[in-house]
Sequence to fold (667 residues):
Amino acid sequence: MAPRSLLDKVWDAHTVRELPSGQTQLFIGLHLIHEVTSPQAFAALRESGLRVRHPHLTFATVDHIIPTDSQSRPLSDPMAEAMLVELERNTEKSGIRFFGPQSGHQGIVHVIGPELGLTQPGMTIACGDSHTSTHGAFGAVAFGIGTSQVRDVLATQCLAVARPKVRRIEVTGKLAGGVYAKDVILTVIRRLGVKGGIGYAYEYAGAAIEAMTLEERMTVCNMSIEGGARVGYVNPDDATFAYLRGRELAPRGAAFERAVAWWRSMASDRGAAYADRVSYDGAGIGPTVTFGINPGQALGVDERIPRLSEVADEERPALAEALAFMGLRAGDPIAGAKIDVAFIGSCTNGRISDLREAARVARRGKVAPGVRTFVVPGSQAVQRQAEAEGLPEIFRSAGFDWREPGCSMCLAMNPDRLVGRELCASSSNRNFKGRQGSPTGRTLLMSPAMVAAAAIHGRVVDVREVL
Amino acid sequence: MGGEPVRRVSGCGCVLRGDDIDTDRIIPARYLRAITFDGLGEFAFIDDRKQAKGNHPLDDDRFRGASILIVGRNFGCGSSREHAPQALARAGFRAFVGESFAEIFFGNCVALGLPAVTLPRAELVRLMESVELDPRQELVLDLARGTLASRAGTQSVTLPDGARRQLLEGSYDATAVLLEAGDAIEATAERLPYVGGFAR
Fold:
């Protein structure tokens, strides 16, 4: 057989049949659900008299609406409580395992899948959330779906989807100190654009990617969708298998050894054909910050905000809109921008290694007067690990607010939100207008270490000068 | 299940200029605090509209009652929330014409029987200008022919074959189609070693 990419191998293995529409009926090996995009899907299922076909392949948690000051019931927001109750009811009636606040495993859906060992190489994974691409870090084909498709998976364990093309993105060399996975993916999106990935799966490779831990690979794959690519993945390797060994819901013993052999066989073959290839020098990437209203509007922290005359004609309206909304001046450096809020967390950067890096910076100072802070672990497991390492004390003594796990201020569906035109240094994934809960609130995306540094200085600084 | 075939959408257009308009702007996250899609229509673009103080296309009297929303490049990027097309459908839109659409948004539209067709930039600009000049004109989107007729002429629109067939046949509500595979679903599962926990 001709050499194949991981995408093609996984796709072929999960193809139930080709549909008359030309799409594939793709079997979904792992379905993750949460409180926001599933209730209407369960309702549609009930209306059509259908049941959940494979309840043991779906897992649920509550993350978007959960408050981060207290998870005690009933939740302070009655609508949030109603959504949680609805999820409890739907999962219980269907026989779906639910990792709720009392389970000890609650957290952001894309954080708990991997940490429980549910996310494995070679799988197809779907979830009603665009950041499902995160799971591609393990060599799974994982993508976000809408609520009608959540219903499809519940009813049939399948989706009708078109096979994407594959673009191989190599990041060569070694990243410099103070440069993180977040800077790599922001750079990729900046170069390829926010719509460059439409129709593509991104295969990340090269020495800089291979040297990354699984948590770092998750950060990269997580933001594939911000580049327009619904799927992003890294081929599984020994680091992947080492991460999975001993995880609660991963295979054990002889089954684990059989799993490793299969997982290894699913990696892209040498000589596989790609629809496109690009390569970037990892050593040339510096700490990166967004300045606009989409994640492609990014800069090196030592660069200046572009002038309208410096960009292509077709980029000008978007740049003008971004500058007007952000209140930033073309030609100014992004370093020095005064911040009001600092948010460390999210499915992009809410894992233990992110908190460790932020704590390293937090040790070196105190939060600047007037800056509100949120440090939100991605899951209860991350929270426990952070507590075991003494991270909450480090954050608290530096003046940071240490919170309970959830999505929090990434999208502000819970009480954590910006007020008015506040400017937020954020380790999350989207700087869209109004994303962090205030219609006029403004977001600068950056790595967790950069956020911690900005909190301490009260303005955007180059973390390399702080470390 | 399956839905009514969608062969033709006609009505007035509404021109919403701008690229990379994300689903948070179409429907901000705070309106996702609900367990149904009911009542979302009035909140479509709510924050943009407030900031535009009545000057937003969705509040423009000239475009009142429009059924075709004309947008720019990469419309519907970001969050997978189906609340975005649900809100726009409830605000009266039954089709979208743009330079390009984000993938998840596009899939959500098809699942709801809402065509999202594309035109090259120059053609799109011609259409936008024509509708802005004469907003009460009737646009006719014909999916079988792959055309959009307006005072700007009859333009060829692009819609991927799969989506086009699903809309024309009324098979866009995928659950029924997927169920037809029957036992082939479980046969596929049996071939995947992980579904059985790598027991053999």
In short: Residues 121-133 of chain B form the longest helix (13 residues). The two ends of chain B are 39 Å apart (CA to CA).
